[in-house]
Amino acid sequence: MQSWEGRWPLVGRQSHLDSFRRELLAGRIRGWLVCGPAGAGKTRLTEEFLGLAAASKRRTAKAVASRAAAQVPLGAIAHILPAGVDMSDPVQGFHAVAQSLSEPARPTVVLVDDLHMLDSSSAALLGQLLDSGTISLIGTARTGEQPSDVVDGLLQRGDHISRTDLDHMARDQVEELLQRVLDGPVSRRALHTLYGASDGNPLFLRELVLGAIAGEKLTLQDGVWDTSEEPLPVTPHLRDLIAGRIASSPPAVRPLLESLAFCHTLSLADATALADRSDLEHLEHLEHLERSGIVEISVQGARVTVALAHPLYAEVIAAETSALRRYDLALRQAERNESHGLRRRDDALHVASWRLAATGTAAPELLRQAAAIAMNSNDHEHAIELLSAIKTDQHTTESRVLLGRAFMHTGQLERAEAVLAEADAQAGNDHEKIITATTRCTNLFWADPDPAQAVAVCAAARATLSDRSAAQQLRLMEGAMLTVGGSPVPGLQILDDLPDDPPQENLDVWLATISAKTLGLTFVGRVERARTLSERAKAAHEAVGEGKLLPHPAMQVAPLALALMEMGEIDQARRLCLSAADSLQATHSPVARQFLAFESARAEWLAGRPVSARRWYAEGVATARTYHLDRVTRLHMSGLMACAAVTGDIDTAASLVTDYEDIAASGGLTGEESLGMAWLHAARGELSRARDLLRHAADRARRTGHVVSEALVLTDIARLGDPKAVQERLTVLSTQGDGAFTPARARFVTALADKDPQGLMASSEELEHMGAQLLAAESAAAAADAWRRRGDARKVTSATADATRLADLCEGARTPILSTIAGAVEPLTKREQEVALLAASGKTSKAISQHLTLSVRTVDNHLQRIYLKLGVRSRGDLALALKHEEPSERA
């Protein structure tokens, strides 16, 4: 890891550096202004500019403007003026300064940080030196600040000043920066937490990372950097920076800022009412706050709202506000909203929260209403806080079920069971019995890998119901538990009675059971129907938002993604999972997050991206450890071991074995939980032991009807050296379902068993098209080996080039088949690379000869050697072999 106290890499700013370097070398630098909000990296970038100038043998100087220095004429730049210069005579003083800074033919490069704070005398002198060509000026200025007229004149010098506007970093830039300075992969949760807390502000990000590492809130777990669930600590330096910005605001707006810190968003009318000033004057203060980047004013239809511009501002303001003041703010805002009438959807949530913060209590009905709104917004922790404030004798069956669901969604499964057992005992009619039993059943399913207890709860409740249709709903829940709990064949038989279309009533039960049904259909190979139903369920769930039995609508993505993988649309599955997982990061839903993290990881693994898959598997394991979620933890652990082993990190893979063996299998995707141990054996060179383990796993998958898992496991047996043993069974499996991926695997294994190079190259092309880059690379490598045995050097070279290109997309994956391509391709010389690229672009030999000042004959000789090395026969083949697009674009 790089030094945290040093300067961070400039991520996303390289184009600005390149532009400055070009202008510097061309001698065109007169002035360069870098503008942006506080913390956007202006100083960091301009210091790099100054370093480039110094490297080009330019004389350099630096000054920092400030409000304190501005109180003294020339205060900011006094240290770069010659000693004893008398500026009382402007003409003589200017000549003395110009003479001291002038260099033969090249101006001195002067950097002024926070140029907008410069005093008028310094600005006037620098402007004269700039106009005379004595200096080149680099400056930074904060967006939204109003400079003096003289400084403004300096900044507006037309063609003399080039301007660069910086903004905060985008999320992908934050990810790149974190991985570079941490020297390792970062979990999606850590990325979301750090990006959300910093808002892409490089300075804030640095301080947050420093504080998180010091406080052990950002740690390296199983080879992946991950954050804890606790809030990130704010370092004293960052707190001082933020407090300084807030302190510069007019005193009249302090009540507004304090209210925003606790109430988050206020209407413009409420914001104005918080100042004991005229409306006009207060609006002027609001405009100042907006220009300074402290608040944001948004227009939503006819409503104008005010909020703090950065999430950290609220934390700093709150820390400086007394408990009595917080009580007063919360109570006043609650009363203000109640005086308007609770007209908007979220008003009940806000008022209940403020009253709870102020007095510790609120009306039970208001708390129940507010908790339901919080749940529908996936804010489960807030719902728990509201519902826990209801006294025991004031709880209804509905409120207890709601509290149980909130506990379940946040991974507090034992607390959920205790509350739901009370609701079960209190339930009086069929409706209450159904919602209690289905919620309790779902909670028990997540709490115990064995679905027997969950099924038993549904069966017991079903026996007490008087309505047959109500009993049928619970029977369907039993089928769902069996299907995803390890018995998809009998479970799907029960779920045959589930309608394909969402019903008008009992939508919660349908959403839960249709999700299980679509997963089960994919397990047994009925992929087309699984895709159709999962797309229908996803649309229905998104239309109503929170599904109540399911933690988040994003949960419907998992069955769809699994179906897409088995249809051979792996890239689409990856994109779908990534989008859904990101939507979950802002909610505290560990059950949903862990479940979807597995599908994300599985898609990356099938794509042949073990480093990316490892990040998701590690996140699933970390979530399981925090919340004791064992439903899919064994699959996560297995995947984590496999990824570590395939990338050569055998020690980490081996360190996970004990924890892996202590966790029971969940039943879903039976057989795949053995992949991690198998690939660990393979990484150690114990191929026969790995294959034996996978044979037992394939047998388990076959007994339980998990067709797609059996196909995956059998394919890995072939990849680890015994394709003939599984060839026949894979061919049978390819006819038992309608997904495209299993037949493609079967063709690959058949060609591998037959040592058929043409069949292997065809499989490589097919698998690459499906997004299975690692299998495609292995297929091409096996084809090269088969051609080698037949003595066809040209085809060996061509297949090896394809295998190498594909393997380069696989994030350093190491497998026995890929080991055969190491060093098999003779690299092109630098001159051959030039000729190859020009020929691939369509240039003739004559045009190439003129471009490189070579004879046409020499060019043709180079081309023949290039064709031999790459295994191609023509310029068209050469263009395909070189694959002009970058790996990152093809991933």
Structure, described:
By secondary structure, the chain is mainly alpha-helical. 63% of the residues lie in helices and 6% in strands. 51% of the residues are buried. Residues 1-6 and 884-891 have low confidence and may be disordered.
List keywords for this structure.
single chain; 891 residues; mainly alpha; 5-stranded parallel β-sheet; disordered N terminus; disordered C terminus
Strand fraction band? 5-15%
Query: What's the number of extended β-strand segments?
Result: 10
Category by helix and strand content: mainly alpha
Rounded mean pLDDT is 85
Rg from alpha-carbon coordinates: 33 Å
First-last Cα distance = 27 Å
Strand order of the largest sheet: 2-3-4-1-5
Largest sheet: 5 strands, parallel
Helix content: 55-70%
The poorly predicted ranges are 1-6, 884-891
Shape: flat
Number of H- or I-type helical stretches: 45
Short description:
This protein is mostly helical.
Topology of this protein?
Layout: H1 14-25, E1 31-36, H2 42-55, E2 60-64, H3 90-101, E3 108-113, H4 120-131, E4 135-142, H5 149-155, E5 161-165, H6 171-182, H7 188-198, H8 202-214, E6 218-221, E7 224-227, H9 236-247, H10 254-263, E8 265-267, H11 268-273, H12 279-291, E9 295-300, E10 303-308, H13 311-319, H14 323-340, H15 347-359, H16 364-376, H17 380-388, H18 397-409, H19 413-426, H20 430-447, H21 452-462, H22 468-484, H23 488-495, H24 507-523, H25 527-544, H26 557-566, H27 570-585, H28 590-607, H29 610-627, H30 633-646, H31 650-655, H32 657-661, H33 675-683, H34 687-704, H35 707-719, H36 723-736, H37 741-754, H38 757-770, H39 773-790, H40 793-807, H41 830-840, H42 845-852, H43 856-870, H44 875-882, H45 887-890
Parallel strand pairs: 1-4, 1-5, 2-3, 3-4
Antiparallel strand pairs: 6-7, 8-10, 9-10
